[in-house]
């Protein structure tokens, strides 16, 4: 049985929030992380030293001339008292420079010690989290990680994360099993399919009886003999003609406009974040099969009454179906 480790961002946590959710056919484990205050990439101690308190270098050179020679104007100016005063100022300058270097060395040692402390704390936290999740998942076999974008950006930059989580990121959205998880959200009789996924063919057949129209938009490269045969057999079996629209390339998707008279189910396998939704009728349902978060933000920002679904959204809000113990 597959296990999905779903890492999402949750502010205000002092430690990761772990919640096992039994979903019968697979195990979902949600992990809330405050990536702003918790596990993150430790800042480097390297950098420019602070300038505060730094002695003015070159003071003697400026005072004595470009070559630093106090006798430059001739012996007549080399009064014994002047020479004594210059030597005293030089010794004071050297003393200040030595004190400044000691201060910088101490500051550097403090920064290095703080960096080592933070690295040790981070490693301990990641190791503890990995141990708890491995126990819940009964090992890493058939286990996949899914990250919200903000969480992924934070943890993937952390070398220690990759050390303790040697787990493949989930990429099976196009498989029939996962298509079947999301497809029931399509409640309208009119369908538009964007892109191609082999896992969708049997799912389409399963709900063919309730379809009134099916428009399939894909690139010329995605159209092949298998799909052509499916379209022909679909019409023979169910009496519904599939309206095919072939595009030159994926870039054409950005210029695509969905002109429909009624609310429609848009089944989207493109993975494209920037798509026009202005012509989509209100009440339509958008199934983002590849869970592109930027696409959700853009659809929601339009202010149109379009209902958006993705597996990430389902995983984030899934309710428990079994009494899995919560880790202390």
Shape category:
elongated
SSE string, helices as H and strands as E: EEEHHEHHHEHEHEEEHEH
How many individual helices?
9
Question: How are the strands of the largest sheet arranged?
Answer: 7-6-5-8-9-10
Helix residue percentage: 25-40%
C-alpha termini separation: 25 Å
Radius of gyration, taken over Cα atoms and rounded to an integer in Å: 33 Å
**What amount of the residues lies in strands?**
15-25%
- Beta strand count: 10
Average the pLDDT over all residues and give the rounded result: 84
Low-confidence stretches: 38-50, 57-77, 322-328
Largest sheet: 6 strands, parallel
Class by alpha and beta content: alpha/beta
Plain-language structure description:
The structure is a single chain. The chain has 328 residues and is of the alpha/beta class. Helices cover 37% and strands 17% of the residues. The strands form 2 sheets. It has a 6-stranded parallel sheet, sandwiched between helices. It has a 4-stranded mixed sheet with strand order 2-3-1-4, with helices on both faces. A hairpin with a 4-residue loop joins strand 2 (17-22) and strand 3 (27-33). The protein is elongated.
Write the layout of secondary structure elements.
Layout: E1 3-9, E2 17-22, E3 27-33, H1 59-64, H2 80-137, E4 143-147, H3 149-155, H4 159-164, H5 176-182, E5 190-194, H6 201-206, E6 213-219, H7 225-238, E7 242-247, E8 265-268, E9 285-288, H8 293-301, E10 307-310, H9 311-317
Parallel strand pairs: 1-3, 1-4, 5-6, 5-8, 6-7, 8-9, 9-10
Antiparallel strand pairs: 2-3
